[in-house]
Amino acid sequence: MVLHEAENLTDMHIPGFDFHRLQGKPKRYSVHVNGPWCITFEWAGNDVRRVDLVQYH
Questions:
Q1: The whole model's pTM is what?
Q2: How confident is the model at residue 39 (pLDDT cuts 50, 70, 90)?
Q3: Cα(54)–Cα(30) distance, rounded to whole angstroms?
Q4: Backbone φ, ψ for residue 10 (5° rounding)
């Protein structure tokens, strides 16, 4: 998975992922999966934390 292989946040800027920072604290980020589904996560140092699969409608 790209998220597992990423060494920094710039590695997530892939066409079709719609990678973006979410509002609020702690800082969380989102990538599009399919339809209303997104993977959200926090980034700490060079590692991903608190990964969730979220359905937005």
A1: 0.84
A2: very high
A3: 9
A4: -65, -20
In this prediction, residue 19 carries a pLDDT of 92
Q: Quickly state the pLDDT bin for 54 (edges 50, 70, 90).
A: very high
d(CA 41, CA 50): 5
Q: Which residues pair with 48 in a beta bridge?
A: 43
Nearest Cα to 27, choosing from 37, 41, 15? 41
Q: Which residues contact 33 (CB under 8 A, 6 or more apart)?
A: 39, 53
E strands, the chain, in order = 20-21, 29-34, 37-44, 47-55
